[in-house]
Amino acid sequence: MSTQAVDVEHVLGRLSEIPLGEGRAYAVAGRQVAVFRLRDGTVRALDAVCPHRGGPLADGQTDADVVVCPLHAHVFDLRTGACRSGSGDVRSYPARVEGGQVVVALPGPPGTSGSADRTG
Amino acid sequence: MARRARDDDGRRDLVVVGNGMAGARTVEEILERGGAEQFRITMFGEEPYGNYNRIMLSHVLAGLESEDAIFLNSMAWYRENAITLHAGVRVGRIDRHARTVRATDGSRTPYDALVIATGSSAFVPDIPGMRTVGRGFHQGVFRFRTLDDTRAMIRYARTHERAVVIGGGLLGLEAARGLQTHGVDVTVVHGPGHLMNQQLDAAGGYVLRRGVEALGIAVVTSARTVGVLGDTEITGVQLADGRVLPCDMVVVAAGIRANSSVAATSGFLVERGIVVDDQMHALDDQGTPDPSVFAVGECVQHRDQVYGLVAPLWEQARVLADVLTGTDPSAQYHGSRTATKLKVAGIDVASMGVTAPERPDDDHIVVSEPRRGLYKSVVVRDDRLVGATLVGDLEKVAPLIQAFDRGSPLPEDRIALLFDLGTAPAEVGVAELPDETTVCNCNGVSKGTIAACVRGGVASVAGVMDATRAGKGCGSCKTLVAQVVEWAADGDLVVDESASWYVPGIPYAKAELVALVREQDLRSVSAVFAALAPGGVEDARSKMGLTSLLRTIWGADVVDERDGRFINDRVHANIQRDGTFSVVPQMKGGVTSADQLRRIADVADKHRIPMIKLTGGQRIDLLGVRKEDLPRVWADLDMPSGYAYGKSFRTVKTCVGSDFCRFGLGDSTALGIALETRYQGLESPAKLKLAVTGCPRNCAEAYVKDLGVVAVDGGRWEIYVGGAAGAHIRKGDLLATVDTPEEVTTLTGRFIQYYRETANWLERTYAWVPRLGIEHIRAVVVQDAEGIAATLDAAVQASVDAYRDPWKERDDPAEPGQFRTALPLTVLPQVPVR
């Protein structure tokens, strides 16, 4: 059994940078992450790149459940990253808002603890 | 990998090798019989996808269906049914003694029961020049079997001009027709003497050939290909008689061969396919059935038959599932009588049984009308139908299939098999079909199944199609499915309204939706969802259409929610495959100046524009602009947007007109510029491309535009509407002939506004005009038969007044991060890790 990666939380920026119902892309810890601010206030985070042809998911249109890739309209579940239109899935990451900041938990290097990286 | 403990949950391991239509359908049948309680299911698929409908690849190639639409089971289906799917993994060997399969990724998976459903692959004859040494196929040679094959073909066709398709069977003709839609000149080369020789006799093949040639596809029969010419680029193919057909791509559609090598090397009996018994058990090389190994689909040889059609495969899957799950341990497959009903390159073809009489006493009734594209033949033996062939008219196909399948009695007057002799209307036909009659051949759905579904409470055609999958294969039976549903519902049919909804998430047709939006004063997309969507649930796929509609209704008084817009409309540029954008400045009527050109050149230099392209709408396209650079590019251009990205009024193409052209009858350039100035940027249900041309030579292609104006003798102007010359080709209908440019301008505005108010979302004028009928449109727009002309004029005037160049947002972004990159094209804003 190999060591398992432990999620590390990262503060990406102010929630107000993301207009309601839209997404924005962030580069963090070697990953490209698309963060979506849904109309009900929830934030969701997925890999930023569509596995089909590399489309920018942050430019996609969303509703409470899914984002639609702007290039070929592949549909991804915002909670799980599962593709609902037959292409590959994307990773989803736990995301939340704290003090007006978007916080996303990404798998850290194996062995790091979840809290060491987060100073609040 | 250690074998899983058998007793962990009491279930056995079922491994399915092959994730095509046969493998996935078999698993569905197994699950339907409660198989999930008996088996842990693992599937291996060579292609890196879920399961898709291979039959529909020809529609994808022809651009009639999106890739998404042909998927039968998405990745989520496998998850929901707890199926472990190894997509993109090939199984290299089956170890019958250890009961494990070995995949080429090195893994070993144990099985208690195994299903081999490896399907078939394209047969490629060994023709010199087709393969390059050590590198597989020549880059310009394609097979037509998988989604990847289809994608590769589409990509290559975009930059190539002439294709030779080797093989004039069903697949070859579908490939030819599909390639044609990409602007490729196609020649079909076929070895036998007539097309589709497996299904048609020579006379039927000839009628089909005329139909195919009428589509602009060249056909060469009795022709053997002996060489593919050209090194890096293909230059032609050589035929055995010495002829060379010039071409720059080659598609091989010369039939299929069962994929049986894994079975063969693993000790199973393989002839033309994997040999199975009547319970679908694979035989070992001693001829003994292996009780734990089954095979199904195109890889299988059953009673000396190998099937290349989908219906037999469904029957096999049902028997296999009955036996494996123990639902019916004595179930047997006795082979299929194959009757096929196809649309070949748009031409209806049906065939069953023999194609020609074989005995002196066989009755043979033939009606052959090549000029009408019609061919019908039936062969009757001992008062039973043993063969039928239909080309061009399938009206009688259902009773013929029934007579063929069931041996039902035939009319004394044999000609009545081919034509209604004025007695039996079509509705009676549906009622009289026995329940067992197969309605959908692709998915093997009978009339009885459809009727049972309706009796079970499903009361719409779409609902029945979803539940039974009838009509979800090639689609050619949709009309018959609808007829059976109507018959079964006996008047209680719920009209399938979702088909008429303006957008999928709001249950109203456009006219009702517009009325409700006005009545309830709904001015934002979120307000529409809250008030009108079931449960107030928003729907991503509906947002763009609603945004457009609200702007049409409210003009500048709309509450602009940017998430309601597609990315192109958020940043006023057209997104490209790499996530960059294209910038097309306005160039009214296609007229420019030295100053504009100089500025464009400077911008291209300064921003290192990777590609500058002249568009079909007589403008200049700057491609490869990064999102974050858009505001600066617009500022440096200092020209208004050309709207080359929106569902909106795009451009007016013009010819030189009367100023310089020695043939010019009217000042087309001035009129084109006037039209573009007035109607620039108007949102519409789909894009609007216009043209004005100065004489009937029609250099600006006005006959094939959404609205095209042609100057004719006597200073008059003809207005054509509903033309198209893209994926769809249609000559526009003459709306009116008028005396002055002012009248052209007024009627254009009124036409556009009527289109904006009544067309469905994404319905181009080439569909909308024939749907409403040119006479009706002329009555409303020209003759004001409904008394709404003044209202239409006022509405379009309000939209004209609300115009604002969107590229002005460069100075005053509409929202935070509007022009921030969304892709790893460059370094993204780096977030410090704290």
Automatic annotation (TrEMBL), chain A:
Domain Rieske: 10-104
Name the record gives this protein: tRNA-(Guanine-N1)-methyltransferase
SUPFAM superfamilies on file: ISP domain
Highest taxon, organism lineage: Bacteria
Origin species: Cellulomonas terrae
Gene Ontology molecular functions: 2 iron, 2 sulfur cluster binding; metal ion binding; methyltransferase activity; monooxygenase activity; oxidoreductase activity, acting on paired donors, with incorporation or reduction of molecular oxygen
GO BP of this protein: methylation
Keyword line: 2Fe-2S, Iron, Iron-sulfur, Metal-binding, Methyltransferase, Transferase
UniProtKB/TrEMBL annotation, chain B:
Domain NADH-rubredoxin oxidoreductase C-terminal: 339-403
Domain BFD-like [2Fe-2S]-binding: residue ranges: 439-486
Gene3D superfamilies, alphabetized: 3.30.390.30, 3.90.480.20, BFD-like [2Fe-2S]-binding domain, FAD/NAD(P)-binding domain, Sulfite Reductase Hemoprotein, domain 1
Domain Nitrite/Sulfite reductase ferredoxin-like residue range list: 575-638
Annotated metabolic or biological route of this protein: Nitrogen metabolism; nitrate reduction (assimilation)
Top EC class for this record: oxidoreductase
Stored InterPro entries: BFD-like_2Fe2S-bd_dom (IPR007419), BFD-like_2Fe2S-bd_dom_sf (IPR041854), FAD/NAD-bd_sf (IPR036188), FAD/NAD-binding_dom (IPR023753), FAD/NAD-linked_Rdtase_dimer_sf (IPR016156), NasD-like (IPR052034), NiRdtase/SiRdtase_haem-b_fer (IPR005117), Nit/Sulf_reduc_fer-like_dom_sf (IPR036136)
A molecular function GO annotation: metal ion binding
Species for this entry: Cellulomonas terrae
Gene: nasD
Keyword 4Fe-4S: yes
Sequence positions that bind [4Fe-4S] cluster: C655, C661, C695, C699
Reaction(s) catalysed (UniProt annotation): hydrogen sulfide + 6 oxidized [2Fe-2S]-[ferredoxin] + 3 H2O = sulfite + 6 reduced [2Fe-2S]-[ferredoxin] + 7 H(+)
Enzyme Commission number(s) of this protein: 1.8.7.1
Binding site for siroheme: C699
GO terms (BP aspect): nitrate assimilation
Record domain Nitrite/sulphite reductase 4Fe-4S: where: 646-784
FAD/NAD(P)-binding domain sequence ranges: 13-303
Protein name: assimilatory sulfite reductase (ferredoxin)
Annotated Pfam families: Fer2_BFD (PF04324), NIR_SIR (PF01077), NIR_SIR_ferr (PF03460), Pyr_redox_2 (PF07992), Rubredoxin_C (PF18267)
Family indicated by similarity: Belongs to the nitrite and sulfite reductase 4Fe-4S domain family.
Cofactors, names only: [2Fe-2S] cluster; siroheme; [4Fe-4S] cluster; FAD
Record text on cofactor binding: Binds 1 siroheme per subunit. Binds 1 [4Fe-4S] cluster per subunit.
NCBIfam families: nitri_red_nirB
Keyword line: 2Fe-2S, 4Fe-4S, FAD, Flavoprotein, Heme, Iron, Iron-sulfur, Metal-binding, Nitrate assimilation, Oxidoreductase, Thioether bond
Free-text function comment from the UniProt entry: Catalyzes the reduction of sulfite to sulfide, a step in the biosynthesis of sulfur-containing amino acids and cofactors.
